[in-house]
Amino acid sequence: MKPKIHGKDLYKVFGDDVTTALDLLKARQSKDEIFAATGQTVGVRNVSFQVAEGEIFVVMGLSGSGKSTLVRMINGLITPSAGEILIDDINVASCSAEELRSVRRDKVAMVFQHFALFPHKTVAENVAFGLKIKGMKPPERRARAQAALEQVGLGARGDSYPDELSGGMQQRVGLARGLASEPEILLMDEPFSALDPLIRSDMQQELLELQRTLKKTIVFITHDLNEAMALGNTIAIMHDGEIAQIGTAEEIVGSPADDYVAAFTRDIDRSQVFAAASIARPADPVDLATDDVTCAMTRMEEMDVNAVHVVDDGKLTGIISYQAANAAHRDGLELKDALEEEFPAATPECMLNDLYPLAESGLPIALMDEKGKLTGIVRPQDVFHQLTATEEKE
Predict the structure, then answer these.
(1) Residue 277 pLDDT more than 60?
(2) Range of the domain at 20
(3) Most exposed of 225, 271, 343, 358 (fewest Cβ within 10 Å)?
(4) Which residues on adjacent β-strands are paired with residue 308?
(5) 195 in the same domain as 78
(6) How many structural domains are present in the chain?
(7) Tens-digit pLDDT profile for residues 248-257
(8) Single pTM value for the model
């Protein structure tokens, strides 16, 4: 599928001797070496990326890493020194002023870290301000502002003033202002970093809930790795103007590209990064219609598990432990007489931290899809092995 946003071979140098700095960049000199030689500041060097339509693409990095420069190049606030930024088929790095205005009007909205709300305007007036600038008539912009406020849970606060709202509410107004223009793309530059941790976490969850409905293409900038892991479908980690690694949270934490990324992710809570599917094994259940307890014991020995799931006509009906199967074999009982109908189960998308209480049973955890079909199993020991993988490498 064609990307919604495509950055190609991007460079940004701040100063009046860009050509010399670019030559030194392409010769692999460092930012500090280039500054010492030319007085030019390197913001972004040799960056390429793609953002799929409808995904949350998180750009994460520390101060000075180039992340804010990158997001401002996407909507043309900063012009690249070299390279292309394509939004659909429009290269915002070299398009005409009229095309750039069209992109900003119809395709892209930006939500900033600081709320920048007008204190003398109501919440609804703040949300509608951009629409007013575009020349939209009052009834339409009021309706559009109200709809955006409803989306962020502030439908009843349109006539309030900013100083009557909490910090989290004010940030929601900023988000509503971005949504009011009905953009295809939302650029969010550290929008939650000024909020206290609890409100910040709430806003992250609200954004995810909103995204399930709106399915916008979102580029989200943050310096917080936990925030990046919580929000990003795809995460780009920047360092000294370059992208050190692009991937999913599981790919970045599980297979860091270099020592910088490894150091950055070392203390991350792996239980909130890895899903059950990442450590799943084939289920290989026994069938109530064709198998017996001897077959069940053999299957457990082959799989190196202490219990095996049982299906009947393709439907998961229970689990049988090795101890119960052995006792049933000794007493001449059938498979159906020895199975337990209650067993630990989860979805493949379930995070490992949610598997802790299920793993305490000691039984393999059944992974079931939305139709109740058994898709795999997770052994309790595999949960703890994944969580200690970093310690073992060290």
Answers:
(1) yes
(2) 5-107+183-268
(3) 271
(4) 320
(5) yes
(6) 2
(7) 999 999 899 9
(8) 0.84
